[in-house]
Design goal:
This protein is mainly β. Helix content is about 5%, strand content about 30%. It has 3 helices and 15 strands. The strands form 3 sheets. Strands 3, 4, 5, 6, 7, 9, 10, 11, 12, 13 and 14 form an 11-stranded mixed β-sheet that branches. A two-stranded parallel ribbon has the order 1-8. The chain has a two-stranded parallel ribbon with strand order 2-15. A hairpin with a 6-residue loop joins strand 6 and strand 7. The longest helix has 8 residues, at about 210-215. The protein is globular, with a radius of gyration of 17 Å. The N and C termini lie far apart (about 40 Å). Bound molecules: ligand YIE and zinc ion. Zinc ion (ZN) binds next to strand 7.
């Protein structure tokens, strides 16, 4: 279903706190109360990599505070549940958030939930339930070697429903040098679009190669025995910001 039709079945999609949004330098605010953020991830928590027909996702053991994100705008620790990507049909677009008019080739999301709620689904019903750490993918000549591990597995999960073991992986190896970020309150970017997400968006992109983006585009939306439809353009267009502040900490 087209994103501008989602609201017919999912009323949240027409809310006042939807994601993604445009981030423009003239509209962001310095907030001296914002802290640095920290990720403490256990590589042993990594379990599986899968193609769910919408994206490539790596899932982690979130049965206790094993891999957590803390600090920044967050009131406490949030448990890492999964990471996934959004990308385009060519290198000139694919990210969900847009920075000063710039669309990146893709966007990596690390999705965490607030363990003060009994489980992930309950957390999705709460305004402080989810935290997504977003990292832009920029195409360049010197790709980040650590992306290779994920892209090497793509061949094993070509079609919807396929998955493969993905042990011993610490996603913080994918982080850029700078931890500078913007933060705002928004939503999950796919239906039901619940407005439960504290976004932490890193200012510095990670560099991937055009071949690595092509690898992501070699995934298929369909299951093995169905006609082939490339899995591309799994990003939601930017939504109205309305009266939301985008903040950033001391730099
Ligand atoms: Cl696996 C997955 C989970 C959520 C979304 C949508 C999303 N919401 N916030 N960030 N991504 C896309 C794919
Ligand atoms: Zn996402």
């Amino acid at each position: 279903m087209r994103p501008d039709q989602w609201h017919k079945n999912y009323p949240f999609a027409k809310g006042r706190h939807q994601s993604p949004i445009e981030i423009n330098n003239k509209e962001v605010h310095y907030d001296s109360s914002l802290l640095p953020w920290f990720a403490s991830y256990d590589p042993g928590a990594a379990k599986t990599i899968l193609n769910n027909g919408k994206t490539c996702r790596v899932v982690f053991d979130d049965s206790f505070d094993r891999s957590v994100l803390r600090g920044g705008p967050l009131p406490g620790v949030y448990r890492l549940r999964q990471l996934h990507f959004h990308w385009g049909s060519s290198d000139d677009h694919g990210s969900e958030h847009v920075v000063n008019g710039v669309r990146y080739a893709g966007e990596l999301h690390l999705l965490h939930w607030n363990p003060k709620y009994s489980n992930y689904l309950d957390a999705k019903r709460r305004t402080d339930g989810i935290a997504v750490l977003a990292i832009f993918l920029q195409v360049g000549e010197t790709p980040k070697a650590e992306m290779k591990r994920i892209l090497e597995e793509i061949n094993a999960i070509k079609t919807k429903g396929k998955n493969a073991p993905f042990p011993n992986f610490d996603p913080s190896i994918l982080f850029p040098k700078s931890h500078d970020y913007w933060t705002y309150h928004g939503s999950v970017t796919t239906p039901p679009c619940e407005e439960c997400v504290t976004w932490i968006i890193l200012r510095e992109p990670i560099i991937v190669s055009s071949d690595q983006m092509a690898k992501l585009r070699s995934l298929s939306k369909n299951a093995e025995n169905e006609p082939d439809h490339p899995l591309v353009d799994n990003w939601r267009p930017t939504q109205p910001r309305y009266f939301r502040m985008i903040s950033y900490p001391e730099r």
